[in-house]
Amino acid sequence: MPQQDEVLEPEVLPPEDDKAGPRRPPPRPGSAGINPILFGAIIDIIDLVSMGPAGLAMGALAGGWLSSRNRSPSWAVFVSAVVCGIYCAMPMTHFTPLMTMIGVVLYAWNRAGRRR
To answer: For the segment 74-103, what is each residue's pLDDT rounded down to a tens digit?
Structure first.
């Protein structure tokens, strides 16, 4: 009777460091998207030069395009386009850099989260 080889299975152990779990690959150059402050400034400039239906169209197009450049999911691109279009169409928002201020808050919030 032929002798059967014994099957050896390796034992897989988790890493010994404190940061066990899946690791994200390092970011590729140019993959960060558009800074939220720049995003807001562009929308505020469009708001400054447009109004009414033209502002709605320009804001929606710019908001959707900028959001897609940040590799956002399709629902977020749609929401961003709608919000930016309404913001650019609203009266009396021309001299208030609201979107830039929101971008500053988001940028600071994101940086504070990385420090923890």
So the answer is: 999 999 999 999 999 988 888 888 888 888
In a domain, 60, yes or no: yes
pTM value > 0.70? no
For 78, 93, 110, the CA distances from 19, given in Å and listed in that order, are 36, 46, 21
Whole-number Å distance between alpha carbons of 35 and 85: 19
Residue pair 54/108 in contact by the 8 Å Cβ criterion: no
The pLDDT score that the predictor gives to residue 56 is 93
- Count of residues in the chain: 116
Whether the CB-CB separation of 64 and 81 falls below 8 Å is answered with yes
The Cα 63–Cα 23 span in angstroms is 32
Q: Which residue segment(s) compose the domain that 69 sits in?
A: 36-115
Under DSSP, the state recorded for 30 is T
Chain centroid to Cα 98, Å, comes to 18
